[in-house]
Amino acid sequence: MSLRNALLAMLTSQPMTGYDVYKNFQTSVGYVWHAPDSQIYPELRRMEQDGLIRGESVAWGKRGTKKRYSITEAGVESFQRWLNEPPDYQRERDPIRLRAAYLEWADPKASMDFFTAHIAYHSARIDDWKEMIRTLRDHSNPTLAKRIEGKPPEDADRITAYKVFAYEGMIARARAEIEWAEGGLDLVGKLEKTDQAKPLDDPQ
Amino acid sequence: MSLRNALLAMLTSQPMTGYDVYKNFQTSVGYVWHAPDSQIYPELRRMEQDGLIRGESVAWGKRGTKKRYSITEAGVESFQRWLNEPPDYQRERDPIRLRAAYLEWADPKASMDFFTAHIAYHSARIDDWKEMIRTLRDHSNPTLAKRIEGKPPEDADRITAYKVFAYEGMIARARAEIEWAEGGLDLVGKLEKTDQAKPLDDPQ
DNA sequence: ACAGACTATCTATGGCGATAGATAGTCGGC
DNA sequence: GCCGACTATCTATCGCCATAGATAGTCTGT
Predict the structure, then answer these.
(1) B71: which DSSP letter?
(2) d(CA A174, CA B92)
């Protein structure tokens, strides 16, 4: 159900076409939620049927048309209902930790690469999110700008603060991952330091 | 493909029935990976077809039988190949952060509850994982005991260390979540402190 | 001897999501 | 006036996963 709410969230800022949403999922909002277009278009159609959004065809060039969706009152209510619900957590399913738990079976070199890749990945994400926070804080983010236009400054600040805070959460988690992976590099170095160290290749 | 590798990982310790696997996914290993039985049994059948595991019917009581699976050499190879691959990361899809980013639409009380629930959830997980680490360190964990039996102490230590380290990673991440959520409580308290503060209920 | 808890396995349905590929129109630049 | 990049939308398939429910045997205690 989160895809639906991610779409509603976006449409609270301004009316958008499926393609606009898709683009946003690849950049800004995409750092928190992502979906391919093959999921977006059908979901928008279903949401229209459910009365959460309303679509209107708008001209695009001479012959082309596109469909722009606006959130309805029912859509806002549904979105708020979701926000007010207690969160639900699914059971853990963590491929990274799963692998880490069995590194005695891996090649030591591959284990080092694994942690190095983990650090690189999360460092890159931190850069993305920091940049995102920058565009939020200076209001150069177009979606945010649309969202706060015409609002009193306190509301604008409040809206911005929650978004910044969400990205700070992503950064905090990524930092924890990096620290952990650095510990992993140390651990592998310590445990596999001898030349003759090799992965277990004999089951049982 | 991670379910398959989680199953292989478990079977490197000892032969197991589908039900054994299911039980483990509800407790010990379940803190890192989880799957319902309706996923486990068919996947085991497919893995047997692919030659990664071998099943044998064993008697159970007078009339009953159960199927116990052992990992094959091909299974070990496949598992190691996975461990040596570079990790792949999917795009972000974070319902918690998604919600946090739009709390201006939520009821302040619900926002507080949201962060409180987040803290409670992750605190509970930390307790689980700490207990898990305890049973690993003192070798009272039966799966680990089976896994290291007959192995020289250095190997036993190495095997244990990776497992402990994986759970430490879970704990580190959970701590980051708790810290973030505490910041969330402060933020909501600060932004919504006035009595007349209420969620935006006017779209556009 | 029976109840109740547990072991063991299976099927069905539906949503979510990844991947791939198809179609068609627009717009800017050479 | 055509090409290439982009906008806009759609379909199909497949694997993963949640949820629900069915079946049948075992084991323990009263």
Answers:
(1) E
(2) 12
CA distances from B123 to A88, B169, B174, B179 (A): 15, 14, 7, 11
CA–C1' span, B18 to D27, in Å?
20
Distance B23 CA to D25 C1' (A): 18
- Could you state, in order of their start, the residue ranges of all structural domains in chain A? 2-84, 95-191
Q: How far is A62 from chain B (nearest CA, A)?
A: 29
Strand C contacts in B 137-156 (CB under 7 A): none
What is this model's ipTM? 0.91
The phi and psi torsions of A29 (rounded to 5 degrees) equal -60, -25
Q: From residue A143, how far is each of A170, B3, B98 by CA, in Å?
A: 20, 38, 15
The strand pairing partners of B53, in sequence order, are B71
Predicted confidence band of residue A25 (pLDDT cuts 50, 70, 90): very high
Task: Give A12's DSSP letter.
Answer: T
Find the Å distance, CA of residue B41 to C1' of nucleotide C9. 8
Buried b / exposed e along B64-89 (16+ C-beta atoms within 10 A): eeebbbebbeebbebbbebbbeeeee
Q: Six-digit token pair at B146?
A: 């089976």
Spatial neighbors of A170 by CB under 8 A, at least 6 apart, are A31, A32, A125, A129, B92, B94, B97
DSSP A129-162: HHHHHHHHHTT--HHHHHHHTTS-HHHHHHHHHH
Question: Quick one: which of B39, B1, B2 has its CA closest to B22?
Answer: B39
- Between these two residues, B28 and B18, which has the higher pLDDT value? B18
**Per-residue pLDDT tens digits for B162-194:** 999 999 999 999 999 999 999 999 999 999 876
Contact A114 B80 (CB under 8 A): no
CATH code for residues A2-84: 1.10.10.10
A-to-B residue pairs, Cβ atoms closer than 8 angstroms: 216
Find where tokens 């052992």 sit. Answer: B70
Interface probe for B, chosen from A99, A125, A146 (most Cβ of B below 10 Å), is: A99
CA distances from A101 to A9, A11, A119, A137, B167 (A): 37, 42, 17, 40, 8
Confidence of residue A126 (pLDDT cuts 50, 70, 90): very high
- Cα A37 off chain centre by: 16
